[in-house]
Design a protein that fits this description.
Elements (H helix, E strand, L loop, with lengths): L6 H17 L7 E6 L20 H14 L3 E7 L28 E5 L2 E3 L4 E9 L2 E6 L15 E5 L9 H8 L12 E6 L9 H10 L5 H9 L1 E5 L14 E11 L2 H10 L5 H4 L7 E5 L15
Helix pairs in contact: 2-4, 4-5
Length: 306
């Protein structure tokens, strides 16, 4: 899969995006939100810890958000720093006072940018401020806080370390399609990273390209190809160019759920932002399908091998 773009190819992609923008009807346009934290030290979950701050992170998420708007979707919420708490991401099934249905589960597509960790084969995400005595979300497993897709959310992008490790897939199904719920809806596509991801304004274009490409190819494919980085990070000091194989990778991943393996795989390999209405929500979660680079070797995890 191609991971770099020439100037000529990028120009062609922009032209394709302009054509798509004029073609999207209001019926197909999505509501999109972005949630990002760049400053934790000013909150009460990591007060004064300036080492936790990542000033470039909101800009990465905004590149996706802005291009989703340029392509005819409706930008419905940009939430950066401020009072970012678990209440915005947790489901009433976890706590009756949770309000994901007016925050992350309200739009059709959302990107979330924050520090992540392995919360027991589930995505843990560090909030800026505490709520109800908690400073993190947990997505995956029945004991999690976060279950999305039962309201409006179809596409969730987790710009967060350890947000979709290869060991999470089975557990993440629970958070993408609630059982015993009055809602028949569910999350269409979840994307994240196996192992650590990297933060820099130089990666803004990868997020913009995800938005553009996700209208002309499957969203899963757009995420995984644009964010994959081979042998670029955490190189040994004596091997800055990776000539001796000490550099490591960035490993994006994506997954879907469905009532059958074939159904989940078809969604993974065909659903775009602008054809999601024709797919409808997943009707079951017995099976999942994943996308990633086998053997991709990130910092913080073994090589990708579901």
């Amino acid at each position: 899969m191609t991971t770099r773009l020439s100037t000529r190819r990028f120009a062609a992609r922009l032209l394709a995006g302009a054509v798509i923008s004029t073609a999207i009807s209001s019926a197909l346009a999505l509501k999109v939100d972005m949630y990002a934290i760049g400053n934790w030290s000013g909150g009460n979950c990591a007060p004064g810890d300036t080492d936790s701050d990542r000033g470039s992170w909101p800009g990465m998420a905004q590149s996706w958000y802005d291009w989703m708007g340029l392509l005819g979707n409706t930008k419905t919420g940009k939430f950066v720093d401020g009072n970012t708490t678990l209440q915005r991401f947790c489901d009433p099934a976890f706590n009756a006072n949770c309000k994901d249905y007016v925050w992350v589960d309200w739009p059709d597509a959302a990107i979330v940018a924050l520090h992540g960790f392995d919360a027991g084969d589930a995505w843990g995400g560090l909030m800026r401020n505490s709520w109800n005595g908690r400073c993190s979300l947990k997505m995956g497993t029945s004991t999690g806080t976060t279950f999305v897709g039962d309201n409006n959310l179809k596409f969730l992008h987790a710009s967060s370390c350890l947000s979709l490790n290869d060991s999470y897939f089975g557990n993440m199904r629970v958070a993408m399609k609630k059982q015993n719920s009055s809602s028949t809806k569910g999350l269409h596509v979840m994307t994240g990273f196996h192992g650590l991801m990297w933060i820099s304004s130089s990666f803004n274009g990868d997020y913009a390209d995800t938005a553009i490409d996700g209208h002309i190819m499957p969203v899963a494919n757009a995420w995984v190809t644009n964010h994959h980085k081979n042998n670029q990070f955490s190189c040994a000091g004596w091997d800055p160019f990776g000539w001796f194989g000490t550099c490591q990778d960035q490993c994006p991943t994506a997954m879907t759920v469905g009532p059958t393996a074939a159904n989940a795989l078809y969604r993974l390999t065909h659903e775009r932002y602008n054809n999601s209405a024709s797919f409808g929500p997943p009707t079951g979660r017995n099976y999942y399908a994943w996308m990633g680079y086998l053997g991709c070797d990130p910092v913080g995890q073994d090589g990708f091998n579901p």
